[in-house]
């Protein structure tokens, strides 16, 4: 089982400093499944390659289990898998942490890298690595070159090229190799959730296949997967480059955090105590609401079962008194639901833009007509602000599931129509930094029912 790491960053021989392995010396490391060897097949100022060879002991690998033929004759010694991931963590652990006392500025610098895995499971390689900035070359490996009619094997010769910090490249491999293989060789326990979130903290939350990665890395154990999904740094509705809080010099709050703070502040000012979070998703707003004892009853409703399971896992971690104030239901924003009538406030946080425009009258009727709370709070993106994010192509919405994004005038027109039809008044509150030309990134409409 091989992994080669090549750089052309000059002087290329400094790769030895980053890996903490001297290019002039071959080294051996004992690992739980055999022995790992590190050596440098090429070292020049223009190009240097370090190779990690994992020599798996198949007998030792199954010594604690039964000795069936299938346990001895398999791809474990050859194809990249969780075995190689563990070896990377042990042999290159300091490099993964980005520590290099001899060349600290180099450790913090993205450099041209080429990673090669000569035998790697082919499924999902492109969809996992390309979103991380890698150029992916996956060359199919035939079952037997002497018999081309037999076709290709389930493996590819995988070559990744990109410009990244070495620490980032190694941590991505560390997480994604078990995901590609989908057959971890060791028992997955609760501490694997922490391990995953530590290794993926810089990129996993914004990866389009984060659920696939989390599920496979945690060996399809639902409890751990739901916990990990609940704890992941949440995706904001800004372009990815703007979401990475690690790049913010003072760790500024995300737009999503500002939205939640604005909603909670408005609910306090309105004197609302019994709240419905309609379209609650994974329960992030519920977490904010439950910390304030002024909110005596909190109901989360979502149409999708999977986010509700994540929300339920989050609620289970609340203190007993907090958990007693929260109820979760499955339901739709476009159908009248007697379970949410009579509440002080209904919140639709980043919900309406996910509804097809022809269904908006049904939403208005279900919320303002049937549920008829004293207050309704609606947040939605301000499409005018999109021009301020250079990484968002012109004409593109912030999220692939957005059916529309409104200007401030369009939200005002919709809100006025709702008020006229259902007896509410509305005021508009900007959320986020207000640009003098295009306004704030998020629009918050606060509806209050007229006295009868």
Automatic annotation (TrEMBL):
<dbReference type="InterPro" id="IPR038546">
    <property type="entry name" value="Hen1_N_sf"/>
</dbReference>
<dbReference type="Pfam" id="PF08242">
    <property type="entry name" value="Methyltransf_12"/>
</dbReference>
<dbReference type="GO" id="GO:0090486">
    <property type="term" value="F:small RNA 2'-O-methyltransferase activity"/>
</dbReference>
<dbReference type="InterPro" id="IPR024740">
    <property type="entry name" value="Hen1_N"/>
</dbReference>
<dbReference type="GO" id="GO:0001510">
    <property type="term" value="P:RNA methylation"/>
</dbReference>
<dbReference type="GO" id="GO:0031047">
    <property type="term" value="P:regulatory ncRNA-mediated gene silencing"/>
</dbReference>
<dbReference type="InterPro" id="IPR024026">
    <property type="entry name" value="3'-RNA_MeTfrase_Hen1_bac"/>
</dbReference>
<feature type="domain" description="Methyltransferase type 12">
    <location>
        <begin position="276"/>
        <end position="371"/>
    </location>
</feature>
<dbReference type="InterPro" id="IPR013217">
    <property type="entry name" value="Methyltransf_12"/>
</dbReference>
<keyword id="KW-0489">Methyltransferase</keyword>
<dbReference type="GO" id="GO:0046872">
    <property type="term" value="F:metal ion binding"/>
</dbReference>
<comment type="similarity">
    <text>Belongs to the methyltransferase superfamily. HEN1 family.</text>
</comment>
<keyword id="KW-0808">Transferase</keyword>
<keyword id="KW-0943">RNA-mediated gene silencing</keyword>
<protein>
    <recommendedName>
        <fullName>Small RNA 2'-O-methyltransferase</fullName>
        <ecNumber>2.1.1.386</ecNumber>
    </recommendedName>
</protein>
<keyword id="KW-0949">S-adenosyl-L-methionine</keyword>
<dbReference type="GO" id="GO:0003723">
    <property type="term" value="F:RNA binding"/>
</dbReference>
<feature type="domain" description="Hen1 N-terminal">
    <location>
        <begin position="1"/>
        <end position="232"/>
    </location>
</feature>
<keyword id="KW-0479">Metal-binding</keyword>
<dbReference type="InterPro" id="IPR029063">
    <property type="entry name" value="SAM-dependent_MTases_sf"/>
</dbReference>
<dbReference type="InterPro" id="IPR026610">
    <property type="entry name" value="Hen1"/>
</dbReference>
<keyword id="KW-0694">RNA-binding</keyword>
<dbReference type="Pfam" id="PF12623">
    <property type="entry name" value="Hen1_L"/>
</dbReference>
<keyword id="KW-0460">Magnesium</keyword>
